[in-house]
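Fold this complex.
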Amino acid sequence: LRHLARKLRASGPVTVAEYMREALTNPGQGYYTRRGGVGESGDFITSPEISQVFGELIGIWYISEWMAMGKPTTLQLVELGPGRGTLTEDILRVFKQLASVLSKCDVSVHLVEVSPKLSEIQAVMLTGGKVQPNPEDESAYMKGISKTGIPIFWYRDIQDVPPGYSFYLAHEFFDALPIHKFQRTEKGWREVLVDIDPEVPDQLRFVLSPSRTPATQCFIQPEETRDHVEVCPEAGVIVQKLASRIEKDGGAALVADYGHDGTKTDTFRGFRNHKLHDVLSAPGTADLTADVDFSYLRKMAQGRTATLGPIKQREFLKNMGIDLRLQVLLQNSGDTATREQLLHSYDMLMNPKKMGDCFNFFALLPHHRLVHPDKKDKPESKSPLPPVAGFNELLLK
Ligand code: SAH
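Structure:
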């Protein structure tokens, strides 16, 4: 707060995006930089922290897509914002169990993480802490070997990840990126800004820009019907990068987050200690987040890849076979406490009133994965493409 107040006094109000960036990822004081409280003992809990089944099914999704794409001989798993590293850990366990399927494939893991604190936690989780900082021969800031023998690299930015056939994963990542907020007024669109409150010392408040800002001009579509709009340009830039990389080198991206398809208005909120927290109070001590606008992500793929979804988490997980997996785990667990825990975590992930409906899955895939390139010429001569798991109903043979 002191750092921000000094800045606001010196140079005037800042955009919500700049405020959010400072509060979350300021190199000294940002929430993620210092603590990043993912998990039960932190400020918010995520699906991979609730149940191992979540990451296992995502691991299966990647193997299924890798097979459908003709089993390429190298595969980079690139996770954006890996939190505590739990999701990657669960995926790597599946890769190990299916080692015979992946035996001819050279697998590596690439984690994009800005938080020194969280990258340390990830290193302990995934490698047992045996990592090499600043390897000279790589663009990564740290590298190590997973407990299952797979090389792992850490980067601050997606553009440092080497090119190559890659599967990208962004779970609860895009919602943490800075948003711009806009409001329709009688005088036209204005941007919502954060300023110091002149009446109360060291308190922040929202104000409206007196005139249009560069962001108002760039990000509000002429056909917009809503009165309040949130736009996350950083998410757009990252999706553009993912789409270009997939178009060029192959692979796929799976994005899972809470969000909407271009319909919601005011979703900016804070979480501290598992409770809603005023976004303007004690910046740097709470997670700040906004729903992901999937319609914007789809637009930013710019037709370079095909897109699937968003579909609700409970539908995606059902299509991935969560019910079967639960049955197996229940059969294999001897004690009542474990069985209750399994049922409780299933309910958290699947119940429409909990995480089942508000979380969505969205994918970027090469066009040829969904439509044969020469389908128009000889539709009958080609065997049908296998359906994309998770986005289609599970058919048991
Ligand atoms: N995917 C994890 C954690 C989600 S929290 C899970 O589901 O449990 C958001 C994650 O994104 C954290 O690891 C945070 O440090 C990281 N992060 C936030 N902003 C980032 C940015 N601009 N670049 C890279 N990582 C970022």
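The two ends are 59 Å apart (CA to CA).
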